[in-house]
Design goal:
Blueprint (H helix, E strand, L loop, with lengths): L1 H34 L20 H90 L4 H39 L13 E7 L5 E9 L3 H13 L15 E6 L6
Antiparallel strand pairs: 1-2, 1-3
Helix pairs in contact: 2-3
Length: 265
């Protein structure tokens, strides 16, 4: 028995030795796979690099969108500049128009002042003529009292008639010239509506108080529409106070005025 055991002992040792060697190799391979460092310096397996493909079409669309937005901003800015320039031009034109109107009104006022001065001179001449008529009438009365010759009395009556006729004509002329001055002032304050006919003619009744303040203006007849009628009334009211007559005796509280801008004065 001992001899047989001795024979089997080397074989057992050989099997155990091979088994231990095989186990050692398995453990070595497992340790290498679990502890071998990656290129990134960590103990985990490195992940593969993900490559991103750039979409050139999307980039172009974004660029086109940015360009469109810039063009819109530029167009909006240009539009604002054009509007500002148009507003500036319109304001300058309005200022020029106002300046022209002011100049026209100043010129019209100068013409009115000159005409009024001329009427004052004529009024002085009328006053002198009134004095001559009064003197002739007084002389005729004296001649009648003294029972002077009929021939002399007839001569005085003829002179009185002539002087009175000239005086009446002068007064009528002064009245017409004063009314013409009133028309000029009213026309200088008139804003012509677009619907005004070329042959506009309006008869206006004007009520005034001493000093020339207009109390009322009323259209009697007019070939214009309602806007034109109202513009004439407004012009009369704007002209208050009216120019005074050259002779106080010519003052009329109510008078009729024919407003006709196209008619010759």
């Amino acid at each position: 028995m001992e001899t047989r055991s001795q024979r089997l002992l080397p074989w057992v040792y050989s099997v155990l030795l091979h088994t231990a060697f095989l186990a050692l190799m398995i453990l070595s391979i497992h340790w290498t796979n679990s502890t071998l460092p990656s290129l990134g310096g960590t103990g985990q397996v490195a992940q593969p690099v993900q490559a991103t493909v750039v979409d050139q079409k999307l980039i172009n669309q974004q660029m086109d969108l940015l360009k469109a937005q810039e063009q819109q901003k530029l167009a909006a800015q240009q539009k604002l500049e054009q509007q500002a320039q148009a507003a500036k031009t319109e304001r300058q034109q309005e200022e020029q128009k106002v300046a022209q109107l002011q100049q026209q009104q100043a010129t019209a006022q100068q013409a009115l002042n000159a005409k009024l001065a001329e009427l004052q001179q004529q009024a002085q001449a009328e006053k002198a003529q009134q004095e001559r008529v009064a003197k002739l009438k007084a002389e005729a009365a004296t001649a009648a009292k003294k029972q002077q010759s009929a021939q002399r009395r007839a001569e005085l009556q003829r002179e009185i008639a002539v002087e009175q006729g000239a005086l009446n004509a002068r007064r009528a002329s002064l009245l017409q010239q004063w009314i013409a001055v009133v028309k000029q002032k009213i026309q200088s304050n008139w804003n012509e509506p677009a619907s005004t006919p070329d042959n506009l003619t309006c008869r206006v009744q004007i009520d005034q108080v001493p000093g020339g303040t207009v109390a009322n203006a009323q259209i009697i007849s007019c070939n214009g529409d309602e806007a034109v009628r109202q513009s004439v009334v407004t012009a009369v009211l704007r002209s208050s106070p009216l120019p005074p007559p050259p002779e106080p005796s010519l003052f009329q509280r109510e008078f009729i005025l024919d407003f006709c801008p196209s008619c010759s004065q």
